[in-house]
Write a structure and sequence with these properties.
- This protein has a domain of about 180 residues.
- The chain is mainly α.
- It is elongated, with a radius of gyration of 26 Å.
- Helix content is about 75%, strand content about 0%.
- Helix 6 packs antiparallel against helix 7 and helix 8 runs antiparallel to helix 9.
- The chain is built from 12 helices and no strands.
């Protein structure tokens, strides 16, 4: 309800501001500039990328509505802890049943490899390779969104140049110079608005989601390796504690004695995330 109210109030304020700026300018010309700035970048992206990639990007954008950030990470911690309890008390058959209920594909794949008897080093290598491929696809999609933050400004400048050319062609009519220049500059204005208030927040939100997935992967890796080494749920609790704050873990796991010193946050995976973080900054 609050989001709807904010959108409505923002729209009313924007229309009032636009009416004050327009004056006697032709609203049809303004609408043409808006269409150029909004649809131009979209058509450019459609022509530059395969349709299956764009469909995947659209699904990723729709999934942003359900992004939970830290809540998702806490759920992963709870699932790993529960898997450790099942593995310790009931054996592989019950672990297989519990693994089928997991929604995270990497955690589920890791549990399957544990049940199949893969060595811990092989599990780590396979998970890292699969995750590297997964993040490469994410990086490609983020690159498309990053391009959309720049294209509206370019198309807005094109609209301004076209509008100024039209004004220079009618210098004999001095009364039309002011409204003509106003219409020409509105293309640049709308290009900046769409870039900074539509595409940039969308890109930042997607980059935040990818960053959360990157931070969750060490936790998944440590949990799966703990299962492969048949570590107790209590021991696994302390390993998870190194990937997440102790206070957050206490909310999920059963109360346990706290260690005397809090360990620093670690990233146990061996491959580098520098390439992945390059588009998050």
């Amino acid at each position: 309800m609050i989001k709807i109210a904010v959108v409505v109030l923002s729209t009313v304020f924007f229309l009032k501001a636009q009416h004050a700026l327009l004056g006697e300018a032709d609203p049809i010309s303004i609408l043409e500039g808006v269409v150029l700035v909004l649809l131009g970048p979209l058509f450019s992206v459609i022509l530059s990328h395969p349709h299956d990639v764009l469909r995947r990007l659209w699904r990723e954008i729709l999934a942003l509505r359900h992004h939970r950030g830290e809540t998702q990470e806490k759920e992963l911690l709870g699932q790993i802890h529960q898997l450790a309890v099942v593995w310790q008390e009931s054996g592989p058959k019950e672990l297989e049943k519990a693994g089928k209920k997991i929604t995270n594909p990497f955690l589920r794949k890791g549990v399957d490899m544990v049940i199949d008897g893969y060595a811990p080093d092989d599990i780590r290598r396979i998970l890292e390779k699969n995750y590297d491929l997964y993040l490469s696809r994410k990086e490609a999609l983020a690159g498309i969104l990053s391009g959309l933050t720049r294209l509206p400004q370019s198309f807005g400048f094109i609209g301004t140049v076209v509008g100024l050319i039209n004004v220079l062609g009618h210098l004999n009519d001095k009364t039309s110079i002011g409204p003509g220049v106003s219409v020409a500059l509105f293309s640049t204005l709308y290009g900046l608005l769409f870039a900074n208030f539509l595409f940039m927040p969308l890109y930042k939100k997607y980059a935040t989601r990818v960053g959360d997935e990157v931070s969750a992967f060490p936790l998944i890796t440590e949990g799966v390796l703990g299962l492969a080494n048949r570590e107790s749920s209590r021991h696994l609790h302390y390993k998870l504690e190194s990937c997440l704050g102790a206070n957050e873990v206490e909310e999920i796991l059963a109360p346990t004695p706290q260690p005397q010193s809090r360990r620093h946050r670690i990233a146990p995976v061996s491959f580098s995330f520098v390439r992945v973080f390059s588009f998050l900054s």
